[in-house]
Design brief:
Blueprint lengths: L1 E9 L6 H15 L6 E9 L6 H11 L4 E6 L5 H10 L5 E4 L11 H10 L4 E7 L5 H17 L8 E8 H9 L7 H7 L4 E7 L12 H15 L2 H31 L6 H34 L6 E4 L1
Parallel strand pairs: 1-2, 1-4, 2-3, 5-7
Antiparallel strand pairs: 3-8, 4-6, 5-6
Helix pairs in contact: 5-8, 9-10
The chain binds uridine-5'-diphosphate (UDP) and magnesium ion.
């Protein structure tokens, strides 16, 4: 009998938890019909919810104390921290990462298990096709994948979800990366191993609402790029070099013109515009530099990524 730890981050998900549990139970029951093969080991991570998520989890834990475990944070630390806590405390033979809102269909688990057990893959990921999405959101997210693919050494497949099934060895490798700024999609790609992607048709949440605003998604993308690429720093250097070249050309032009036509004092509006432009470019480059320094600052503080208040 093999144990599959299901890491489930929950943030204000009181309506979804029981539904999730029942659906997964059904999937495991039908998988185990012939012979007892797999045991689900639920690891719910309550990410500082302000609704009744924790009490729903307590009830579930009392109902099924052997299989349902929970970690509760002292406040909201974000999904990345919940994933990190889950991975460090997952002890199953296989580990799956799932959203509680049933957007990651548990019905795919048997197929994923089969792939990982018979086809020699270390990880099976899920790619979502055709989900009804706001067109602006869809455009921004597809541009993000192109940009990060182009700028960094990590390769992230477009529309890949966090939903994945991992082998023990794979999870141990992820846990070896102790960075504070965690962008798990990048980490999964960075550690290597063989990952197979399966496709499924995206669906809407079973209950509740998404926690991501457009602005948060944008911020998440920028963080991801900065965590895995130094291309923006190179861009800053490039901008500096180009403006220097323009300046040299300008100086040569002005000198020759002055020599031929004599000196002229006119032209302060253009001078002011150029000064503003260069000042702006400098601030832009300083901003990029600042982003990286901020990351270094956070890393060197060695703060924990999360604080666990309760572990059952
Ligand atoms: N989540 C979390 N902490 C947060 C935000 C979200 O643990 O700060 C969890 C949430 O409960 C859900 C999963 O992360 O299980 C995905 O969140 P959501 O469904 O809002 O994102 P989407 O599916 O829209 O990308
Ligand atoms: Mg969701």
């Amino acid at each position: 009998m093999k144990t599959i730890t299901l890491i489930v981050p929950c943030y204000n998900e009181q309506e979804s938890i029981n539904l999730f549990y029942e659906t997964v139970e059904k999937v495991f029951n039908s998988m185990n019909q012939e012979k007892e093969n797999y045991r689900p080991d639920y690891l719910f991570v309550n990410d500082g919810s302000s609704d009744n998520t924790l009490s729903v989890l307590h009830e579930l834990n009392q109902k099924d104390p052997e299989n349902v475990h929970l970690i509760s944070f002292s406040r909201n630390f974000g999904k990345e921290s919940a994933i990190a806590a889950g991975l460090r405390n997952a002890h199953g033979d296989f580990v799956a990462l799932m959203d509680v809102d049933l957007q990651d269909p548990p019905e795919l688990l048997p197929q994923m298990l089969k792939i990982i057990e018979t086809e020699n893959y270390d990880c099976v990921g899920c790619v979502q096709t055709s989900r009804k999405q706001n067109p602006v959101r869809a455009f921004l997210s597809s541009s993000f994948y192109h940009v990060i693919d182009y700028l960094s050494s990590v390769n992230i497949k477009p529309n890949v979800r966090d939903y994945r099934l991992m082998s023990r060895q794979y999870v141990d490798a992820v846990n070896d990366l102790t960075e504070y700024n965690r962008f798990s999609k990048g980490i999964f790609s960075w550690i290597g191993f063989d990952t197979k992607y399966i496709e499924y048709k995206g669906r809407d949440r079973a209950a509740g609402e998404t926690h991501w605003s457009l602005f948060q998604l944008l911020d998440y993308s920028i963080e991801g790029i900065i965590d895995f690429s130094d291309a923006p720093l190179k861009l800053a250097t490039l901008v500096g070099i180009i403006s220097c070249i323009c300046a040299v050309i300008g100086i040569i032009f002005i000198t020759i013109r002055a020599l031929i036509f004599g000196g002229a004092v006119a032209g302060w509006p253009s001078l002011v515009s150029i000064m503003l432009l260069i000042g702006g470019l400098q601030l832009f480059c300083l901003g990029i530099l600042g982003k990286y320094i901020g990351k270094v600052y956070l890393e060197t503080k060695h703060r924990p990524q999360y604080i666990i208040k309760e572990h059952k």
